[in-house]
Design a protein that fits this description.
By secondary structure, the chain is mainly α. The protein is built from 20 helices and no strands. The chain binds magnesium ion (MG). Magnesium ion (MG) binds next to helix 7.
């Protein structure tokens, strides 16, 4: 479909202006159905790449047009490049560790609190929903979403702040996410991901005051799929952190700021739906030149984030445990510097120094690994003597 024709379709959708029409639009498209002959089976990937060109918007990234990998390698027979990247991330050790890393609440004992893993899955779900409606590349946006927080430290943002102070030159999680996929995974071979996935990971982070949309071109992901993850990340955490804070008894629904709730909705589900539809409508209206959000929904979303910072992220009772986390990471940092050969990767020490190796070791830890190692190194074990007889003799 030519770009202008796609634009006409988009304008028609906006004029008709309901999401029911989007459903009808998708159902009415006559997509090619492949005859699964031997010749197709011989190279499924090429057929899937051809299908991307038929069904995705002209503005979508295409697997066959990737800018490539850090190291050249043969293509897979079955999976196009971005699908392969998604799979590599799911099978990585760093991805599995996300299940024991803090989102907001430290080492939650309640089964229903988010962890960094479930946050990541929610970001992937929201990203795919947006990408699908916009006819962008779902697997590329999914790969970026699944990889975006791989570099997070134990103990959430408190852990990131501690490492930022400890490590000469500072620390941030998105650079560490890139280091994991480029260098550390796969026995230091890296995952050798495509440029598009790496670019999306590098540009997802907004920090405390950054905007999810409207960044200058030089500061945003070069693909629309990467820009989706940036806005889906905020959409996910603003809503699930409110939900978890209410579960923890730190927030009540009536504590939330009134205006954003009136605009976006009274539940996480309603707010996510409102934000997603707004992103889709605003991006269609801008003819997919970049991922957008309307000014009013953006302002309401950012107001919720500001509220969360004061009421939850920097709240004294919610962060009391994080002060202990500071002591744990500080103690471990000192100990691994005292005995680097016992803990740190010899290749990293030789190539980049002890600080770099200590950064990789500490940042890669799960909450419970850090706590257990601290206990092993710093807490004396109680002496276990002979068992007393029942009569005390
Ligand atoms: Mg995130």
């Amino acid at each position: 479909m030519a770009e202008s024709a796609h634009g006409i379709c988009v304008l028609r959708l906006i004029r008709e202006s309901t999401f029911n029409n989007l459903t009808t639009f998708r159902q009415s498209r006559s997509l090619p159905i492949y005859q699964w002959s031997k010749s197709v089976m011989a190279n499924i990937r090429k057929h899937l790449e051809a299908r991307e060109r038929q069904i995705l918007a002209p503005q979508a990234a295409k697997s066959a047009d990737t800018r490539g990998r850090l190291r050249e390698e043969a293509e897979d027979d079955v999976r196009p490049a971005f699908q392969r990247d998604r799979d590599r991330i799911v099978h990585s050790k760093a991805f599995r560790r996300l299940k024991h890393k803090t989102q907001v609440f430290f080492a939650p004992t309640g089964d229903h609190y988010r962890t960094r893993l479930t946050h990541t899955l929610e970001v992937a779900q929201i990203s795919r929903t947006i990408a699908k409606v916009l006819q962008l590349h779902e697997e590329l946006t999914e790969a970026i979403a699944l990889g975006h927080d791989l570099g997070h430290t134990p103990f959430g943002h408190a852990g990131e702040r501690v490492l930022d102070e400890l490590i000469p030159g500072g620390f941030n999680h998105y650079q560490q996410s890139l280091r994991i996929v480029d260098v550390l995974e796969n026995d230091r071979q890296g995952l050798n991901l495509t440029w598009e996935v790496r670019d999306g990971i590098a540009h997802h982070s907004k920090g405390k005051g950054g905007s999810p949309v409207g960044m200058p071109a030089s500061q945003r992901s070069k693909t629309l799929e990467g820009q989706i993850v940036r806005v889906a990340d905020l959409t996910a955490y603003v809503n699930h952190d409110i939900d978890d804070a209410q579960r923890a008894g730190i927030l009540r629904p009536e504590d939330l700021p009134k205006d954003p709730v009136a605009l976006l909705g009274g539940s996480s589900s309603a707010r996510i739906g409102r934000m997603v539809k707004d992103v889709v409508e605003a991006t269609f209206a801008g003819n997919l030149s970049e991922i957008r959000m309307s000014a009013e929904v953006l302002a309401a979303t950012l107001e919720l984030r500001t509220f969360l910072f004061s009421a939850v992220y920097e709240n004294e009772s919610a962060t009391a445990e994080f002060k202990k986390a500071t002591g744990i990471l500080g103690g471990l940092w000192e100990k691994v510097h005292e005995r680097p050969k016992d803990f740190l990767d010899a290749r990293t020490m030789a190539d980049e120094g002890v600080d770099a190796a200590a950064r990789d070791f500490l940042a890669g830890m799960t909450d419970r690994y850090a706590v257990n190692l601290f206990e092993t190194l710093f807490i004396p074990k109680p002496w276990v003597g002979p068992i007393d007889l029942v009569d005390g003799q």
